[in-house]
UniProtKB/TrEMBL annotation:
It is a multi-pass membrane protein. Keywords: Cell membrane, Membrane, Transmembrane, Transmembrane helix. Its main location: membrane. This is Lysylphosphatidylglycerol synthase domain-containing protein. It comes from the Bacteria. The chain crosses the membrane at residues 9-27, 51-69, 126-152, 164-182, 208-231, 243-266, 273-296. It is found in: Cell membrane. It comes from Flavivirga amylovorans. The lineage of its organism: Bacteria, Pseudomonadati, Bacteroidota, Flavobacteriia, Flavobacteriales. It holds the Pfam family LPG_synthase_TM.
């Protein structure tokens, strides 16, 4: 076995590598964004001259609310198996954000949060994290479907249903085959059978689920309003209702497109350009909006999270459940 000091050295090296990797991806995204040249982005914001101290403080306040609801949701969902305080939830949420920043679809968040707990909790923590993401996706889907309905009916978006039908039929066939295959095989996730996963969700405290759903809803309302607010300070003329039609549609479509999380801003930018293009908005305005949203809601929190990654220590194993 390796000596304790050598283990500590390698563990510290891994933590440092995660932080450096996150910083590099942030830098790479800003400087080498194929959708938006960084110098053009800075010049555009300088020309607008709308980022007063008041506006910046309000944007930071909205970011604070966004993450406060997310952190409180995590604390609420974990509570049935292990009580943690708000400080612990803050550390776990931001630390896992930094660790998962450059992983596909934030998959690294599952392992990052689980490692904060001893081994006897980790399987349940994985499922709880999945629950939290499902609840957030449920809110995104509900608002997104409503938004798409108004988008198609109000703005008469041209959709080629003839070309879309084969794609929908193939997708439906694949989903059916997957469901049938899962039912006929002993499907497991991290040692949990599908039956146990369903039982875990069914038996999960309903009060915690309802509270977490409400927090997911509040979080959605905050960051969608933040998107609208940035559009306003960049000089666009659009009502809140019309903006929400596009914003809710954008978040739904962007959420179902697989991506590496650090390039999430590119995915959202591309979808947003198309949707807001229907309303006649310029590409630079929409790309700047998605980039600012990314900076405030992911880059800044991940910088805070890097402190927790560097200072992270593995929990001491106990026999207590």
């Amino acid at each position: 076995m390796l000596p304790y000091k050598i283990k500590q050295f390698f563990f510290g090296l891994i933590k440092l590598s995660i932080v450096i990797g996150a910083f590099y991806f942030i830098y790479h995204k800003l400087v080498n964004n194929p959708e938006l040249d960084f110098n053009r982005f800075v010049a555009f914001l300088s020309k607008k001259s709308t980022f007063s101290l008041k506006n910046i403080l309000l944007l930071f306040f909205l970011t604070f609310l966004n993450w406060l609801f997310e952190i409180k949701k995590w604390q609420t969902l974990v509570a049935p198996i292990k009580k943690i305080n708000l400080k612990n939830a803050f550390e776990q949420s931001l630390g896992s954000l930094t660790a998962s920043l450059f992983t596909p679809n934030r998959i690294g968040e599952y392992g990052a949060k689980a490692i904060y707990y001893t081994s006897n909790y980790r399987k349940r923590i994985l499922l709880i994290n999945l629950l939290g993401n499902i609840l957030q996706m449920a809110v995104t889907t509900i608002f997104g479907i409503i938004g798409l309905y108004f988008l198609v009916t109000k703005y008469r978006v041209n959709i080629d249903y003839y070309k879309l039908t084969p794609f929908l039929l193939i997708s439906l066939l694949i989903i059916t085959l997957i469901i049938f295959g899962i039912q006929k095989t002993k499907f497991t996730i991290k040692g949990f059978s599908l039956k146990k996963i369903k039982l875990f969700i069914i038996e999960f405290p309903k009060r915690a689920l309802i509270s977490a759903f409400i927090l997911s809803l509040l979080r959605y309302l905050v960051f969608s309003f933040q998107f609208y607010f940035i559009l306003q300070i960049l000089g666009t003329e659009i009502s809140y209702f019309n903006a929400m039609i596009v914003i809710t549609s954008m978040y739904l479509l962007a959420s179902i497109i697989p991506s590496i999380f650090v390039f999430d801003v590119i995915i959202k930018g591309s979808v947003a350009i198309y949707l807001f293009g229907i309303m006649g908005f310029s590409d630079i305005t929409i790309l700047s909006t998605t980039t600012i949203m990314w900076l405030f809601n992911f880059v800044f929190p991940s910088l805070l999270g890097s402190y927790y990654v560097i200072n992270f220590n593995l929990p001491k194993e106990t026999n207590q459940l």
